[in-house]
């Protein structure tokens, strides 16, 4: 049911950024009859959940997996009239491809319980029974510490924590590395133990929901554009090509924004839902003398680097998630049957240790990618017809040890100023679900009348 009780007051809420955080915030406000305007700098909607054309090749920020235990994102999509099963293909297996061994794991306890259990108990080439046994005390201690001492857990890198709890070197490299670096890029020497357990904790009460899905189409087309249309149906506006240069501040309160072209727009509230670095710049310009802001400015960033390519042959026999421990491959997937449908090949790879790769020329990054795919026995990479290296320096907060305490709340002490974005404080780390939760929290703050 659409609300028609549009707010008739003069000034809208302005939301800077059309990623999932900005869109989810806008949806909640528009749904409650608030006047909202989303200002997006890029020519397309979606931020890190976008696809676009990069010099003649269709690309995305990087391949995205929908985790089965997400709640806020599926509910948002449903309310916006987007049918989840029409946009997501649920995978039944995942592969860990180490240069010396390979393992296949079932992913769906509900629909394929035997395959799932066989995966966990089998795969002895990849991990011996001794390696697997070394993981039990580690997981038990980790989930306990995650609930009891999250701040302390965030001070320890996952490698150190795993060693302390007796995880064997093989299990560390072949299982802990894919489940950490394979997901959030950083090497295990840096990766926060809090982030490691935080990703799996939501599944403990609902293990049957650990399944992962690939998008059936580009994320802008199947998710963020329809979401933006749902906002507009509720009276909101979503505008692209509108980079915000400054916040307008009067008497210590945020009263609007100034675009890069000099246009000023007044607002009742401003929600900064830009990526972390832009948000730090916009907010830091005015409030860096305030303690909460100094803490936020201390939140570090990390880059990301992905390789995406088209080929005359498919890289793998199925479009499902692979991890490549012991190589430059974090996680990767053939996508020609799902996200970028075509009769020939199309694959996407998220590379590990982006700090080392971010400034390398495309040719060198591609060479490392190609060599790594050969190392895990995927020679069809040699049928590549075109590739793109898609990278970003300033989009992610750094999931390394010691950063969690710097993540800011969505409701700030500054009148008229709210933050949204996966980097803000919420339990779902740097994920689509986390971004949606952050946007909803900012909207709730506005609707409750926080100044
Ligand atoms: C390679 C890669 C793989 C990922 N894999 C997964 C995955 O498998 N599963 C998962 O759940 N999540 C994944 N993520 C994370 C997920 O994409 C993010 O957590 C989420 O999309 C963040 O949304 P956001 O709204 O917080 O930020 P963003 O999507 O970054 O949105 C910020 C927006 O603000 C805009 N902006 C910036 N500055 C300005 C300005 N001055 N004026 C106006 N607009 C501005 C930007 O253009 C952008 O559109 C992945 C991300 C990447 C990059």
TrEMBL record:
In terms of Pfam families, this protein maps to: Amino_oxidase
Q: Which GO terms describe its molecular function?
A: oxidoreductase activity
The record's section on InterPro entries has: Amino_oxidase, FAD/NAD-bd_sf, Zeta_carotene_desat/Oxidored
Amine oxidase domain residues:
20-447
The protein depicted here goes by the name Carotene 7,8-desaturase
Q: Which organism is it from?
A: Paenibacillus bovis
């Amino acid at each position: 049911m659409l609300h028609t009780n549009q707010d008739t007051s003069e000034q809208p809420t302005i939301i800077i950024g059309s990623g999932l955080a900005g869109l989810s915030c806008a949806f909640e406000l528009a749904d409650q009859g608030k006047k909202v305007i989303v200002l997006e700098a890029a020519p397309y909607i979606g931020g890190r959940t976008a696809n676009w054309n990069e010099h003649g090749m269709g690309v995305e920020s990087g391949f995205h997996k929908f985790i089965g235990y997400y709640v806020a994102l599926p509910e948002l999509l449903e309310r916006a009239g987007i049918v989840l099963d029409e946009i997501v293909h649920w995978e039944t297996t995942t592969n860990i491809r180490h240069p010396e061994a390979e393992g296949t794991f079932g992913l769906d306890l509900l629909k394929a319980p035997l395959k799932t259990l066989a995966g966990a108990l089998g795969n002895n080439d990849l991990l011996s029974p001794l390696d697997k046994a070394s993981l039990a005390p580690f997981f038990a201690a980790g989930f306990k510490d995650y609930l009891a001492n999250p701040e302390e857990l965030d001070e320890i890198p996952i490698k150190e924590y795993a060693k302390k709890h007796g995880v064997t070197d093989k299990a560390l490299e072949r299982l802990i590395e894919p489940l950490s670096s394979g997901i959030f890029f950083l090497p295990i020497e840096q990766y926060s133990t809090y982030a490691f357990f935080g990703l799996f904790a939501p599944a403990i009460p609902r293990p049957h929901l650990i399944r992962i899905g690939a998008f059936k189409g580009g994320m802008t087309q199947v998710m963020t554009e329809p979401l933006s249309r749902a906002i507009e149906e509720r009276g909101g506006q979503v505008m692209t090509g509108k980079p915000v240069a400054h916040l307008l501040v009067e008497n210590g309160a945020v009263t609007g924004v100034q675009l890069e072209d000099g246009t000023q727009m007044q607002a009742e509230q401003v929600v900064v839902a830009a990526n972390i670095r832009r948000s730090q710049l916009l907010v830091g310009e005015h409030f860096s003398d305030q303690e909460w802001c100094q803490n936020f400015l201390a939140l570090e960033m990390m880059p990301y680097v992905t390789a995406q390519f088209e080929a005359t042959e498919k890289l793998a026999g199925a479009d499902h998630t692979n991890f490549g421990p012991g190589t430059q491959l974090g996680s990767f997937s053939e996508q020609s049957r799902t996200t970028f449908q075509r009769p020939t090949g199309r694959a996407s790879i998220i590379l590990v240790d982006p700090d080392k790769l971010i400034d390398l020329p495309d040719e060198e990054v591609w060479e490392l990618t190609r060599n790594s795919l050969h190392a895990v026995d995927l020679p069809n990479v040699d049928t590549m017809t075109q590739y793109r290296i898609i990278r970003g320096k300033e989009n992610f907060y750094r999931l390394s040890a010691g950063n969690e305490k710097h993540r800011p709340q969505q409701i700030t002490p500054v009148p008229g100023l709210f933050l949204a974005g996966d980097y803000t404080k919420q339990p779902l780390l740097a994920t689509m679900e986390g971004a949606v939760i952050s946007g909803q929290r900012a909207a709730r703050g506005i609707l409750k009348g926080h100044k």
